Amino acid sequence: MASGPNEESPAAAASPIRVLLVGGPAADVELVRALLEHARQTHVQLRHAPSLSQSFAALDANEVDVLLMDVGSGAPRELVAVSQARVRAPLVPVVVLADGDDESLATKAVDVGARGYLIKCALSPGALVWSLHHAIRNQRMFVELNIARERARQLATYDQLTGFANRSLFQDRLDQAVASARRNRQKLGVLFLDLDRFKDVNDTYGHLAGDALLRMAAQRIATCLRKSDTGARLGGDEFAVLLTNLADEADATRVAEKVLAALREPVSLKGREHLISASVGIASFPRDAGSADELVRRADAAMYAAKAGGRARYAVFSAMQSPEDAERSGREQRLRAALEGGELMLHYQPVVDVVRGSVVGAEALIRWRHPELGVMLPADFLGLAEESDLIVSIGEWVLRSACEQAVRWQRAGHPGFRIAVNVSAQQFHTGDLVEQVRQALRASGLAPDALELEITERSLLSGGERTLDQFSQLRGLGVRMAIDDFGTGYSALAYLKQLPVDVLKIDQSFVRAVATDPADATITATIVQMARALDLTTIAEGVETAEQMQLLASYGCSRMQGHLFSEAIEPPRIADVLGAPPFFWMRRGA
Ligand code: C2E
Ligand code: MG
Ligand code: MG
What we know:
The structure is a single chain. This protein is α/β, with parallel strands linked by helices. The protein folds into 3 domains: about 15-155, Rossmann fold (3-Layer(aba) Sandwich), CATH 3.40.50.2300; about 165-320, Reverse transcriptase/Diguanylate cyclase domain (Alpha-Beta Plaits, 2-Layer Sandwich), CATH 3.30.70; about 340-590, EAL domain (TIM Barrel), CATH 3.20.20.450. Helix content is about 50%, strand content about 20%. The chain contains 23 helices and 21 strands. The strands form 4 sheets. An 8-stranded mixed β-barrel has the order 13-14-16-17-18-19-20-21, surrounded by 5 helices. Helix 14 (about 390-410) packs parallel to helix 16. The longest helix has about 35 residues, at about 125-155. It is elongated and about 110 Å long. About 40% of the residues are buried. The model is unreliable at about 1-15 (pLDDT under 50). One magnesium ion (MG) binds next to strand 18.
């Protein structure tokens, strides 16, 4: 705030400062005039307006560099005038001239937009001129900063050629629109639009003409949109339109028809009439897609269908689907609704330590309690989820629920209880699994080494570098990593040594055969021995008979799961198993 003299010489300014003093008694006006005359080095033009409204003409005519407003004792009415002045002439800085030395008044004046504050009894020529200069300089900096900020925002979010949103702003708006449409049960439409044979225009008329054409196309598209819609240029000759709050999905096709008609008007390029057209793909939420990404993919697919269908036309995603595709996307949406509606649940299969004779943890296994079809197993629906992004959301829910459940059991008196969660290969490819795991641990408070993540040997082998890298990161969090269905993927044993894993789960097929097939028995014994040498834990899956259990234990594998001990059961029933006496399965007379 400017209220004191300054070492900096105000004389530097060459052109006169045009000061408009608003309000104040005649004596004060004279005082100000006298002081300014005294400050000879600076050329100041002073005018006086008895009230703010009488200053409007000069403000509107751009004749004022700085407003000096006499606010007297600083009554609220006087301060209101300051903010009115700021609204009327936002670029003209205001310096307040007050009767008394009241700090709270100075603060209030700045709050309503003043850039300086002067007290009448402490006025001097230097202080006055310095304050006026300072306010002007300050204001100029403020304006420049705002311009730079706005420019940076424009560059980051808008396409410079057409003024349309760029890809990142479009993505942002789409994400928000989908979230809000989901909450409010509204419909959305996305159009994907690609100009037909744009390359020919570029090649024939040059890039400048190409740019002009793109600008014109954007202008024409814009005329077909409502204020709440977003037009975007995604790159090259590709545009997208987001239509929010559609009354009906058919409205999206109406907009597409309008856009196509607007583009059909000939354009003049280098003095020649040129016809342009576009191919448009349409997808809508929730009919064609359940997420922003899916919506974009489907509008894109529909756009390609429009191109393939002969260009200069639109195609609607749902209409281009084969009956099988339509059926699948219907089932996919049904599954998404199941996730959101709480129809998915986790059953838990106890993991026992046959040497200690007790339950040491459990594996979470997903189930779908379908209202019509009854309880469905993962084989019936996970494949569908894995073909879309749905597996990422489902996986996140599984992780969160399983971690929370594990903490409940730990708190109920089983501190070392360990939970195993299955992870699909898809989760390593899409979405941020490492972050999901970190969140699930943080939210539940589960210790990382109480969580075991299982990925099948096949997925691991086919997952490549990205999967391995995430494996290492997850292990870095302290989480235990397990290879599921081990033995079915034929990984070279030497390879195992390099993998960042802690646990091997021996596949059911070997376990089933140990008592009947000597070759499988040998393989299984070898796996257990080798795992021991590499300091890995082995867990045998699908143990159904006492004989299998004994053989496996004789090889040195003490951790097991299987129907001999318990199938996968609902959480409340796990409490019975956890509270059961040691070696409870032997007493069952298995
Ligand atoms: P998995 O991880 O190898 O799980 C073991 C499967 O064997 C489970 O089938 C389990 O119920 C079954 N099982 C356990 N003991 C026995 C037994 O003694 N005999 C026989 N015949 N079967 C037994 P489920 O629950 O149908 O799960 C099948 C697969 O689905 C799982 O194989 C796992 O790969 C996958 N899965 C299950 N839940 C999830 C999940 O939440 N996320 C992901 N990504 N995959 C899951
Ligand atoms: Mg498993
Ligand atoms: Mg398995």
